[in-house]
């Protein structure tokens, strides 16, 4: 059943209020601008990495150690930013479910730690490491008939 004109007007007002109040949440609900900005950060980081290589090689060829170190630091920083941007882009690339009016582009993105599985911790058996090793040794000797 389509929304009435009154409901569409109220929905648009609520969306505008949401964008004004919390633009980051609104962009997360849209899901596109965060991916675009992550891609932009990754591209800029790649360009900075190339600049860092040039600075590093310039320092090495000119035998100016501080310039070479600065180039390495630029490379390291840009690689860190690129990896963080790519990871952020992959984390938000889950296919969103559309829940709102299609004309507005708002979607709900599944969140949480769905990709991570928690493993229960193994309980430690009583005794120290050496006591456990000795009990294993005794068990093996008994199973093998003395040897």
TrEMBL record:
- The residue ranges crossing the membrane are 42-61, 67-86
* Region described as Disordered: 91-147
Q: Name one Pfam family in it.
A: DUF3040
What residue ranges carry the coiled-coil annotation?
none
InterPro entries per record: DUF3040
Q: Point to the regions of Basic residues compositional bias.
A: 115-124
Keywords (alphabetical) are:
Membrane, Transmembrane, Transmembrane helix
Q: Which domain of life is it from?
A: Bacteria
Q: Where is the composition biased (Basic and acidic residues)?
A: 131-147
Q: What is this protein called?
A: DUF3040 domain-containing protein
Look up and give the organism this protein is from.
Nocardioides koreensis
